[in-house]
Amino acid sequence: MARFCTAFEGTRLIATGDLREVAAEAKTVIDRGTLASILIFDDTTSEPIEVDFRGTPADVQQRLEPAENPRRPGRPKLGVVAREVTLLPRHWDWLNSQPGGASVALRKLVEDARRTYVGRDRLRHAQESAYRFLSVMAGNEPGFEEGIRALFAGNRRRFDEMAALWPRDVAQHAKKVSAAAFPEGVE
User: Fold this and answer.
1) What's the pLDDT tens digit per position in 11-62?
2) Buried b (16+ CB within 10 A) or exposed e, 96-123
3) Residues contacting residue 18 through CB under 8 Å, at least 6 positions apart
4) How far apart are CA 3 and CA 132, in angstroms?
5) Cα dihedral sign for 127, 133, 134, 135?
6) Any residues with CB less than 8 A from the CB of 157 and at least 6 apart, and which?
7) 42-66: b or e for each residue (b if 16 or more CB lie within 10 Å)?
8) Is residue 137 helix, strand or coil?
9) Please, is 6 exposed, middle or buried when counting C-beta atoms within 10 Å of its C-beta (0-12, 13-18, 19+)?
10) What predicted TM-score, i.e. pTM, was given to this entire model?
């Protein structure tokens, strides 16, 4: 599965797209002897992506190949993952009394919650992603704190005013990752 990301050389955007393509472009910039740091961010979460740039471009690409996943017990074709859940005894009693048992009841509850809160979750994820990116790339820029307040208040106009104070590529990417944080028609 392709992983889309964006790379910066300092505050200058150098590439955006599939991780393999972005890493290749970043490697080219590094090999030219840049003194600025190279940062790569996941386009969905704004989590930093660590890439080992040692060696040749082919070495870098080879290290990006996904490792084979070992087979695990359970239902791997369905994507079922076993994890620990801690509940009070009355919760376990209720879950176990449901048709299909605790696992089926929990899956239904999660799916219902996902449908119910999809808008709120999208907004929260967009705010968190933009905050994560901006903390790294604009944390020392003028208007950062006011821009973050505007982000969490849903004030697009004020956010854009503050973003205008930041380096152009940083501001453009911040607007991209924060787009879902501003419901249409809300100022």
Assistant:
1) 999 999 999 999 999 999 999 998 889 999 999 999 999 999 999 999 999 9
2) eeeeeebeebeeeeeeeeeeeeeeeeeb
3) 2, 3, 4, 5
4) 18
5) positive
6) 150, 187
7) bbeebeebebeeeeeeeebeeeeee
8) helix
9) buried
10) 0.78
